[in-house]
Amino acid sequence: MIIGYTAGVYDLFHIGHLNLLKNAKGMCDKLIVGVTTDELVSYKGKKPMIPFVDRIEIVRNIKYVDAVVPQADMDKLSMCKKIGATILFVGDDWYNTDKWNKYEEEFTKEGIKIIYFPYTKGISSTRLTKLINESK
């Protein structure tokens, strides 16, 4: 059984999120999704518009998602090892960056492949938040 993992804030859930989850599920037997806790979002200097308990419930009810876990820290390698994931799905904005090139080496040593998916053009939670704030 191939277990895949991806994580995100999933604030203002949109078609880009759905595309990522659909594509990820197509590449594994079981898709486990980490939803970033409010505390971790705050640590990154942001504030989610939708509370964690609601965001995790929304993601839990997406048909492509087999299980949901809280993502309380930035350590995706430990989470992958904990849940037995052999694939990590991430956005392509991280592709070929120094940080993620190093991660790829670490994940490869553990037998975990990183697959980068393109962002859906024209949509992001950051953009939606900006549009909401501008409309006030």
Descriptive report:
There is one protein chain. The chain is of the alpha/beta class and 136 residues long. The chain is built from six helices and five strands. The protein has helices spanning 15-25, 38-43, 52-60, 76-83, 98-109, 125-134; strands at residues 3-8, 30-36, 67-71, 87-91, 113-117. A five-stranded parallel β-sheet has the order 3-2-1-4-5, sandwiched between helices. Strand 1, helix 1 and strand 2 form a beta-alpha-beta unit. The N and C termini lie far apart (48 Å). 28% of the residues are buried.
Key features of this structure:
136 residues, alpha/beta, 6 helices
Describe the secondary-structure layout.
Layout: E1 3-8, H1 15-25, E2 30-36, H2 38-43, H3 52-60, E3 67-71, H4 76-83, E4 87-91, H5 98-109, E5 113-117, H6 125-134
Parallel strand pairs: 1-2, 1-4, 2-3, 4-5
Quick rundown:
The chain is α/β, with parallel strands linked by helices. The protein has helices at residues 15-25, 38-43, 52-60, 76-83, 98-109, 125-134, and strands at residues 3-8, 30-36, 67-71, 87-91, 113-117. It contains 6 helices and 5 strands; from the N terminus they run E-H-E-H-H-E-H-E-H-E-H.
